[in-house]
Design a protein that fits this description.
Blueprint (H helix, E strand, L loop, with lengths): L3 H17 L10 E3 L5 E3 L1 H9 L3 H11 L5 E6 L3 E6 L1 H13 L13 E5 L12 H18 L3 E5 L8 H12 L1 H9 L3 H14 L1 H15 L3 H25 L11 H4 L3 H10 L3 E4 L2 E4 L14 E4 L7 H14 L5 E7 L3 H14 L7 E7 L2 E2 L16 H16 L6 H22 L6 E2 L2 H4 L7 H18 L15 H10 L2 H11 L2 H21 L9 H25 L8
Parallel strand pairs: 5-6, 5-10, 10-11, 12-13
Antiparallel strand pairs: 1-2, 2-4, 3-4, 7-8, 8-9
Helix pairs in contact: 1-3, 2-3, 4-19, 4-22, 6-7, 6-8, 6-9, 6-10, 7-10, 8-9, 13-14, 15-16, 18-22, 19-21, 19-22, 20-21, 21-22
The structure holds arginine.
Length: 575
């Protein structure tokens, strides 16, 4: 482990045990970055209280007990320990990290099976930009867990079942299969739905047909099932177009939509009722998980079967959670879904615990996704008020990126490749760089800016390093060091990079890709100071300095590229 904060924590803990007894070996030394040194340990203050001794005296005792310590320590003020790492330690750790293909990122031990439920657009309702964010955040979590050696099972819980399909299928028959498929593949799902809805509300005959169609669909009538497939296949082809454009790793094999659980729902309900987990209340079958009450202080029901015998969203999620634990053997289930569904998931998890379907050894977590807002601070819509077609939105990002790089003299093919990477990278990075549960303002100008915490800025940082290597005429893999820290800018950059491995592990553990963005942004900023202070290829740079700086550049780009890859942000060779 190269992360200085972790190394120092271990060393100070050893000193604590040595100076005050083994019962202190697990105390948190409270090591934090400091403005007066590299780090500061504040443990002496809290420990002094417990030992009834002067903090300064405690700090001095810790200092005296430190051994095998990779830096110098100074007791300051009332009892702070200011820690400055030795340059030689940073140099050798950085070089070791450069030689490590995993860049100090460990593997989860033992490896876990992580089920990640993400994207999950609805075929029969408006597909909105909110799904863009669950798709992007979920995909990054999938990449992170795979990188840590976990078994990732992606589950695209499509909204592909339910009563609206009666009217959708009837509308499909009215306009003809060919025309319907064409519309759906083009991303006109919302328009298709709205047209069906208008007829359903104004045309008694149509409404009647739609109702009958729901029944034939539920009964599995082959002809109706075929029409359902025609509808869904065309819709999924549109979703796939978007996934491909975005470089999202979801495939058809990951589809596990609501329809998949339909055959399980009756047994799900029967089992819940038989075990006494669910009871009939006002004709509906309900679970009343402990701790949930409505505004009237009455227990809040999770309705698993409605009073008309129909099933709903909660029924499906109860079947799904059992399937994920029992059949998929999940150790951890992540639901990357809008924060407006927080209560639903808390109740589903609690109900599954009561039913014994979610043992304590399995964690179920709702990774809440905050709402997408327009620049006006309201729910994201077009000017005329309709929701925005995802494919148009993504195309606009690519068009704007094309305009931004149009003066750089690339041929058409290169230009369109870069524009796509920059456009998609900008949209994805913007979604990821804000903590996933906060609301997020969709703003093309900001996300496409070439400065600040943006995708294009990170891509630009890597492209800059690549161009140094092109000019040097060597591959990054040829740069092996040794790394020598002369300038403070080199030192700051190297020290920061050492924290990469443990940061990636924390980001996956806590489902917080925005912290990886922040780390990469800090990397790019330190890199840019390094560029200002430290020439690499200038003829007057001594050979050993050049070797060292190239190695530091190679390490930086390895971190940036690995980090961006874990976020799912593409890295163009040039920009
Ligand atoms: N289709 C749902 C929606 O758009 C999201 C499904 C999330 N996953 C789940 N297991 N409920 O709101």
């Amino acid at each position: 482990m190269t992360d200085p904060q972790i190394v120092l924590t271990e060393r100070v803990q050893q000193a604590l045990a040595h100076a005050f007894g083994p019962e202190h070996a697990d105390a948190d030394p409270l090591i934090r970055p400091s403005q007066f040194a590299d780090f500061q340990a504040n443990v002496a203050m809290s420990l002094a209280k417990r030992l009834r001794r002067a903090p300064r005296e405690v700090a001095e005792a810790i200092e005296g007990a430190l051994s095998d310590f990779p830096g110098t320590v100074e007791v300051s003020g009332p009892g702070f320990l200011n820690i400055t790492l030795d340059d030689s330690w940073i140099e050798s750790e950085a070089r070791r990290m450069l030689a490590d293909p995993r860049l100090g990122v460990g593997s989860t031990a033992p490896s876990q099976t992580v089920v990640i439920d993400y994207s999950a657009p609805n075929a029969a309702k408006e597909m909105h930009v909110g799904h863009l964010r669950t798709t992007i955040v979920g995909d990054s979590l999938a990449r992170l867990h795979e990188h840590l050696g976990n078994t990732v099972i992606r589950q695209n819980h499509l909204g592909d079942w339910g009563t609206p399909f009666g009217m959708l299928i009837e509308h499909l028959l009215d306009i003809g299969e060919g025309a319907a498929v064409e519309q759906l593949e083009a991303g006109m799902g919302t328009e298709f739905y709205q047209a069906a809805r208008v007829k359903f509300e104004n045309d008694e005959g149509f409404k009647q047909r739609a109702r009958v169609r729901v029944t034939t669909l539920q009964s599995g009538d082959p002809d109706t099932m075929r029409l359902w497939h025609v509808f869904m296949d065309a819709t999924v082809r549109y979703f796939n177009k978007i996934y491909e454009l975005l470089g999202v790793t979801l495939t058809d094999a990951d589809i596990a939509g609501e329809s998949m659980y339909n055959p399980m729902l009756q047994k799900t309900c029967d089992d819940l009722e038989a075990s006494g987990t669910a009871v009939v209340s006002d004709g509906a079958l309900c679970v009343f998980p402990p701790g949930f009450t409505g505004s009237d202080d009455k227990p809040l029901p999770l309705i698993v079967r409605k009073s008309d015998g129909g099933y709903g969203y909660a029924s499906t999620d109860m079947a799904a959670i059992r399937y994920r634990v029992h059949d998929l053997k999940a150790d951890r289930i992540l639901y990357v879904v809008g924060s407006d569904q927080a209560l639903h998931f808390r109740m589903v998890f609690a109900a599954a615990r009561v039913a014994g379907w979610l043992p304590d050894t399995v964690s179920a977590e709702h990774v809440q996704i905050g709402m997408m807002l327009g620049k006006d601070g309201r729910r994201f819509k077009t000017r005329s008020g309709e929701s925005i077609k995802l494919v148009d939105l993504l195309q606009e990002a690519v068009d704007r990126a094309t305009a931004a790089i149009s003066d750089r003299g690339y041929d058409e093919a290169t230009k369109s490749e870069i524009a796509r990477a920059v456009g998609m990278g900008a949209v994805k990075y913007a979604d990821l760089s804000v903590s996933h549960d906060s609301e997020y303002v969709f703003d093309f100008d900001r996300m496409l800016a070439f400065t600040g915490n943006t995708g294009p800025y990170m891509q630009y940082a890597t492209a800059r390093i690549r161009s140094i290597f092109r000019r040097a005429g060597i591959e990054t893999s040829d740069a092996k060091g040794p790394i020598l820290l002369g300038d403070p800018a080199e030192r700051a950059l190297a020290l920061h990079l050492l924290g990469f491995g443990s940061l990636v592990e924390q980001v996956a553990e806590q489902s917080e890709p925005h912290r990886l963005c922040a780390f990469l942004y800090e990397t790019a900023s330190l890199l840019s100071t390094f560029y200002e202070q430290c020439p690499v290829l200038r003829p007057d740079v001594p050979p050993e300095t050049r070797v060292s700086r190239l190695a530091l550049c190679a390490l930086t780009t390895a971190v940036l590229e690995t980090g961006l890859d874990l976020l799912g942000v593409p890295v163009p060779e040039r920009m």
